[in-house]
Request: fold
Amino acid sequence: MVTWNGGGFDLPVIHYRSLLHGIVSHQYWETGNEDQAFRWNNYLNRYHYRHTDVMDILASYQARANAPLDEIAVMLGFPGKMGMSGSKVWENYLAGDIEGIRNYCETDVLNTYLVYMHLCLIQGKINEQEYQQILDEVRNFLLNSSKKHLELFAKEMI
Reply:
């Protein structure tokens, strides 16, 4: 699982919603008591990699060093938030703009993925050729998606 600020937002939302709706997910909550493979690599410990919070890694787990996804994505040549932000979701929901919220979430995931791929590049997990291939594949997929916001995202990628 790869997130941007997932430890500070996404995972707590998942936890509370799971609690409210009684959703059981044994392996998600496993920390090694029953399955030793999860002792040193589980979803809940911030220093493990079953959940990779890219913002936390880049900020060295220091809250004062956190940066917004939009700024990092734009810095790397990706489109960023494209006019929407998390702070506008409630307002858009009240206005009935569910499509706008969905489009925002889709581009947020794209920005997170692309920043993560760039992190993989600087970590040496992929090389420059593999990175460029990933960018090309994403761009081509989006250009052929028939969704205007995704086509626009692809055209704004450097």
Remarks:
- The mean pLDDT is 95.
